[in-house]
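FAQ

Q: What does a record look like?
A: Structure on top, sequence underneath. For example:
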């Protein structure tokens, strides 16, 4: 998807653009691995399933979404960097 028209429109009304980032990178920046570790500690019987789903969301290749989807953030410039978009 080409985000440029949306980004230009948002900037024209004073918004600040963040990204785009690939979904995998965005989720890692938000701490998906830490969250998955917490879930696995509390549900050991489904640890393999949790690992599989993290890989599906963040990985690359067939049937994985980490590079397939991108994330674009639009916010008020006063907010600074949005979570997951920090440098």
């Amino acid at each position: 998807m080409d985000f440029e028209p949306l980004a230009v429109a948002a900037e024209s009304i004073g918004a600040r653009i963040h990204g785009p980032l690939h979904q995998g990178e965005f989720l890692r920046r938000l701490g998906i691995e830490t969250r998955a570790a917490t879930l696995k500690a509390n549900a050991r019987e489904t640890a393999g399933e949790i690992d599989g789903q993290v890989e599906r969301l963040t990985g690359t290749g067939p049937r994985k979404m980490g590079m397939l989807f991108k994330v674009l953030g639009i916010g008020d410039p006063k907010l600074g960097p949005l979570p997951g978009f920090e440098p």
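Q: Is there anything notable about this one?
A: Residues 41 and 47 are 8 Å apart (CA to CA).
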